[in-house]
Design goal:
Blueprint: E1 3-6, E2 37-40, E3 44-49, E4 61-67, H1 70-76, H2 84-94, E5 121-127, E6 131-135, E7 138-144, H3 146-149, E8 151-155, E9 161-165
Parallel strand pairs: 1-2, 4-5, 5-7
Antiparallel strand pairs: 3-4, 6-7, 8-9
C-alpha cells in the first residue's frame, strides 16, 4: 500500500509559497525510510498504476490531483452554494486550481492547470466532513480535517474510496 502525505496550511512549512513544500522527512524518521511512504507538495499530482476499468480506457495510470483545500475554501467565499463538492466541480470546470491567484501562481504552471486533462481523482483535504462527488469523469473526494477527525482515505485496487478513522493521540 502506498502512503501519501500532503502538506497542509498549518504544517511547519512556508505557506506563502505555492506549491507548498513537503513536510521534512525528520518528522517521520521511520516511515520516511520506507519506499511506499511519500511526502508531497501541496498541491500535487500523482500518477499511479491501476487495474483497468471504465475510469480510463486510454491509459494504464490514474492521474490524481491532491490539495490541502485552500483553493476550495478561497473559491467557496465567492459562491452562494458553499458545498465543497460543488466548489470542486467549479474548479474542474474552470480548469485551474487557483483561479483567483491568491497564492500568486502562474496560469502556465502544470500543477495548477487542469484544462488539458482532468484527473481521474481530485482529492481535497481540510473539509468539514467526508464527501464524494463527480464531474466529467473525475471523482471528487473531500477529506475532513485530519487534526480534528483523524480520518484518512483509502483507495482500493477497484477504485473504491473508503474513509479510514485512525486512533491517534497527540
Amino acid at each position: 500500500m502506498e502512503v501519501i502525505v500532503v502538506t497542509g496550511e498549518k504544517d511547519p512549512t512556508p505557506v506563502s509559497k505555492t506549491p507548498q513544500p513537503p513536510l521534512h522527512t525528520g518528522l517521520f524518521p521511520l516511515a520516511s525510510q520506507l519506499t511506499n511512504f511519500h511526502l508531497l507538495t501541496n498541491p500535487c499530482q500523482v500518477t499511479m498504476p491501476f487495474i483497468r476499468s471504465e475510469l480510463s480506457k486510454q491509459s494504464n495510470n490514474l492521474k490524481i490531483v491532491v490539495t490541502s483545500g485552500s483553493c476550495v475554501d478561497d473559491v467557496g467565499l465567492t459562491m452562494e452554494n458553499k458545498c465543497p463538492v460543488d466548489v470542486c466541480r467549479r474548479l474542474l470546470q474552470c480548469g485551474h486550481l487557483y483561479p483567483n491567484s491568491r497564492h500568486g501562481c502562474s496560469e502556465t504552471e502544470d500543477i495548477f492547470v487542469l484544462k488539458n486533462s482532468l484527473p481521474h481523482f481530485f482529492i481535497v483535504g481540510n473539509q468539514e466532513e467526508f464527501h464524494t462527488g463527480s464531474f466529467n469523469g473525475t471523482r471528487i473526494v473531500c477529506v475532513p480535517k485530519f487534526c480534528e477527525s483523524q480520518t484518512a482515505v483509502v483507495f482500493t485496487k477497484h477504485h473504491d474510496i473508503i474513509p479510514l478513522k485512525l486512533k491517534i493521540s497527540f
